[in-house]
Every structure is written in C-alpha cells, then in structure tokens.
Amino acid sequence: MPLTIPMTNNIGFQNMAHVVVHFQDAEPDLGRKGFQPDQTRIAEKLAVSATTAFRKRYNLLRKPGSTKQYGAELKLQTWIRDQEAHVREAPLAISGNGLFAPTEVLPILSEPVVEQDVVALFNQMLSSGLVRGVQLISSSQALQYDGLYQIRMEEPYDKYVLGPTNPLGIQKEFFADKDEVVGSITKVLEYKYTLDGLVEEIQAGVKAAEDISLVVVWEKGETWRELYDIVSYLDPDHVHLRTVHGATHGFVDSLSGQPRFDAIVLKDLVSFLLDPVAEAARQRRLQSIE
C-alpha cells in the first residue's frame, strides 16, 4: 500500500525517495480503510527517519542539473555589462565636509508591510552604515531580477570587522591575506517581503537560484524549506561563514548540497541588534527544528 512520506522539511524528497517498510509476522487488516492507524504511523516515522538520514549523512539523493536557456543567460549578462558601462559613463559621487550627518536612528519608523518597504529600509541601513561594503549598481522593475550590486571593502578594514560595536561584521581572519581592496564582480540582488515569493518564481522557472547572490527580505516565510537548508550567521557557531557585512543567513540547495545565496533577513537582523543573546539562542533553536 503506497503512502506519501510526510516530510516536514525539504518536502521535495518525498517525491524522490521510496522506502519499503516490512512488518514481519504482522497480520494487517487490509479492508476498505487500509492499514491500521498505528502501523501507518510507525511506517511513516521510519520512512521520514530513513530519508533524512540518507539526505544528511550520505548525500545520495541529488537533483539532476538543469541547463539554463542560452537566451536568458545572455540577457542577464547583457544587462550586467550595460549597467557596468553606465556606472563608468555616468558615475554619481557626492562628498564634502559637513554634508553628511548620520543620525543614531533610522528614518523609517515602522516595520515593513510590503516589498517596497523592505527596499527602503535596506537602503537606509546602507546609507547609515549599519550594513557596510555593499554598493548598489542598478535597480529594475522591468527586467528579470530586481537589481545588481558589488562588494567593495577598503582598508582600513576595522569598520568591517566583527566586534562588540559591530555585531554584523566579518571575522578578522577573513581579511588576513587580502589586498588593499576586497571586492567582487557584479552580482544579482533580489528584494522580497518574504522568501515565499522568490521560491515561487524559482519553481516556476521565472528566476534561477544560481543567478542570485544576495536576497533581502523582511522575514523568511515558510516555503523555502521545500528547496533549501539554512545556516544562520547570527548563531556564533556559524558567524565565521559570513563574508557579506550584515548577512544573516546562507541558503543551501537541500538536494545537491550546493550553496545558493546569502540573505539579509531584516526582521532577524533587527531582533539580533536589540538582544543579541536572545536572538542567537532563538536561531539555534530554529536551526535544530528546520
């Protein structure tokens, strides 16, 4: 009698794995209602445990790689080149003594309720220096992705290093063998209110996870569990994995084990800044569940 494996996380595995449970010397009542409920529950628990063990320990279940359409890939690369050319041809730089006077609080006064609020809050965090080293290249509502960015961190690196007054920083060892400037190529940035919207677009083939490097959301949502495992950089045990100042989480493809993108989950970031100890403990609890 076939049953669906009741996975609570990474539910894509329930369609890829087959577990045979044999009850020796059992005499099940196979009437119209199938197996007895207690036998069904035992079989389901065994199937979930077996599937989880194979996924986490042996990595035998892998999602076949998909080939991106050439047209979409070329369109993305053309957009990146065009925006990089625009930066060179029409740079925007404002400087001057006394022009900038950062305040100790952000101008936005309430929690985001839509994606546009997320964009506004993140930009305020960049301009205030709460998040550092991320330079925005382009934003677009018309094309496939929301925007482009680069990482640029210049000496002295102290302002990027993790410390008591910089809890969103990067561990000092990251800069040990670096040149005068730590930078990246132009990468894709996505904004969402929750990750649910992005997961829906990835599953529909509208966007490709391998194209995206950084996602900024207010909160994680729920459906990311269907595709990804998560690592929290707000947990002190994993903070050494942070390479983008302010990044709160890393998402890993649950089938292939490949890293997909970093995320700045603004709600968790704010909670961490208000009470680092309590939020770090909450992140540990969530990871043990997720």
Fraction of helical residues: 25-40%
Pattern of helices and strands: HHHEEEEHEEEEHH
- Unreliable residue stretches: 58-66
Total count of helical runs of at least 4 residues:
6
Which value, in Å, is the CA radius of gyration?
23 Å
Q: What can you tell me about this protein's structure?
A:
With 290 residues, the protein is α+β, with helices and mostly antiparallel strands. It has 2 domains: 11-58, no CATH class; 72-90 and 108-289, no CATH class. It is 30% helix and 17% strand. It has 6 helices and 8 strands; from the N terminus they run αααββββαββββαα. Strands 1, 2, 3, 4, 5, 6, 7 and 8 form an 8-stranded mixed sheet that branches. α5 crosses α6 (276-289). It starts with 36 loop residues before the first helix and ends with a helix.
Features:
2 domains, 8 strands, alpha+beta, 290 residues
Question: What's this model, at a glance?
Answer:
With 290 residues, this protein is of the alpha+beta class.
Topology:
Blueprint (H helix, E strand, L loop, with lengths): L36 H22 L11 H20 L25 H14 L5 E6 L7 E8 L26 E3 L3 E8 H9 L8 E8 L8 E5 L16 E5 L5 E7 H9 L1 H14 L1
Parallel strand pairs: 4-5, 5-8
Antiparallel strand pairs: 1-2, 2-3, 2-4, 6-7, 7-8
Helix pairs in contact: 5-6
